[in-house]
User: What shape does this take?
Amino acid sequence: MPQDLDSIKEALRKFAHDRQWDKYHSPKNIAMALTVEAAELQEIFQWMSEEESASPDSDTLQAIKHEIADVFLYLLTISRVLNIDILDAATEKLALNAIKYPLDKSRGNATKYTKL
Ligand SMILES: [Mg+2]
Assistant: This one.
C-alpha cells in the first residue's frame, strides 16, 4: 500500500481513471462530495458530549478514520484537478493564519481574527 503522498495521489488518480470517473470530477462536484464526506464525519459525533467525542470506542474510531480518509482523498482530488500543490497550499495558509492570529492576541482564546 502506498504510504507517501505522491504514491497515494497516483493510486487515487489511477483508481478514478480505471473506473472512468474523471468525467465526474469537476471542481464543483468534488467540492460537493468533500462537503458530504465532512458531514459524514460530523454525523459520527452528532449527539455525543464533548467528553464522549474525545474517547470514542474502537469501532467508532475506525469509522472516524474512514471518514477522515474520505475527506483527505477528495482534498487530494480537487487539488489535482485544479493543479494546486496541497502541501504548498497548506504551508501558505499556515503562514497567513499566523499573521491573522498573532500570538499575543490569540493565545488562549478562540476569537475570530476579525474581532481581535
Ligand atoms: Mg464517507
